[in-house]
Amino acid sequence: MAYFRPPGPAPDPALVRSLSQQQLALLQNRRTEPLAAEPRLIAGCDSSFPTPETIISVFVVLKFPSLELVEKVYSYGLVTMPYVPGYLSFREAPNVIQAFAKLTHRPDVIMVDGHGIAHPRRMGIAAHLGVMLDMPTFGVAKNKLTGTFAEPGLTKGALAPLTDPKTGELIGEVLRSKDKVLPLFVSPGHRCDQATATRLTLACLRGYKLPEPTRLADHWAEEFKKEVR
C-alpha cells in the first residue's frame, strides 16, 4: 500500500481511542489457520492515494498456479478519515471493500500489499481486510513496520524469521524474492497461517521483486489512475 502521510497536528485522542477499540474487536475475531484447500484463484490487492483527498484501490484475480489474469477492478473515492499513525487500515479499508464488491470471480485467498499480523497490534491492513471480508488473507510488504530479524541470505528464496523483540513471537518471515534485492515481509492476515503465506508468495514469484498478485495490482493502479485524472 502506498500511504500518504500528511503533516499536521496530532490526531484527536478520542478518535485514537475509538480506532483502538475497533482494532481490538477485529483482532478478537482474527484466526490463524491453514487454507482448507489449495487455491484455484488468488487475488492481489493494492491501494494508493492520487491526491491527499482521494484513494484508488485495485483487485486483480489470477488463476493459481498459472497466474493467468482473469479479472481486474478498481474503486476510486474520497478519503473519509484523517491520517492516524498505526491505524492506516481504517483509512483504506472502506474503499478496498468497495473494490472487492465489484469482483465477479471470488478468490480463494487474497495477497495484500501491506502487513498482516506484522503490526504493533497484530492488525495490519491484510488482517483488517480479512476479518472485515471473512476471507483468507496475508500480507506482503516492502518495508518493515515492526519486529526484529537477521538479514536473510542474498539468493532468491532465502528466509529469516521476523519476531516481536519483547516476546519473541513469530509475526512474519523476511523473504528474499530475487537475488540481491531488498527483502519482503510476509505475514498471515486472517484464516491463513505463516507457512501458507510464505509458500504462496514463493509460488507467485516470476522474476520480479514483487509476487505477481501485488505486482499486477500495483501496475493496474497506475493504469486506472489515468482514467480518474
The chain-level structural class is alpha+beta
The CATH homologous superfamily corresponds to archaeoglobus fulgidus dsm 4304 superfamily
Number of strands: 8
Main sheet makeup = 8 strands, mixed
Whole-number tally of structural domains: 1
Low-confidence stretches: none
Strand fraction band?
A: 25-35%
CATH class: Alpha Beta
Assembly form of the protein: single chain
Please name the CATH topology. archaeoglobus fulgidus dsm 4304 fold
For the termini, the CA-CA separation is 20 Å
Tell me the helix content: 25-40%
- Succession of helices and strands: HEEEHEHEEEEHH
Number of helices: 5
CATH 2nd-level architecture: 2-Layer Sandwich
Radius of gyration: 17 Å
Overall pLDDT level:
94
Mind explaining what this structure looks like?
- The chain is α+β, with helices and mostly antiparallel strands and 229 residues long.
- It has helices at 13-29, 88-101, 125-133, 194-203, 212-228, and strands at residues 41-51, 54-63, 69-78, 109-112, 137-141, 159-163, 170-175, 184-190.
- An eight-stranded mixed beta sheet has the order 3-2-1-4-5-8-7-6, with helices on both faces.
- Helix 1 crosses helix 3 and helix 2 crosses helix 3.
- It is globular and about 45 Å long.
- The model has no long low-confidence stretch (mean pLDDT 94).
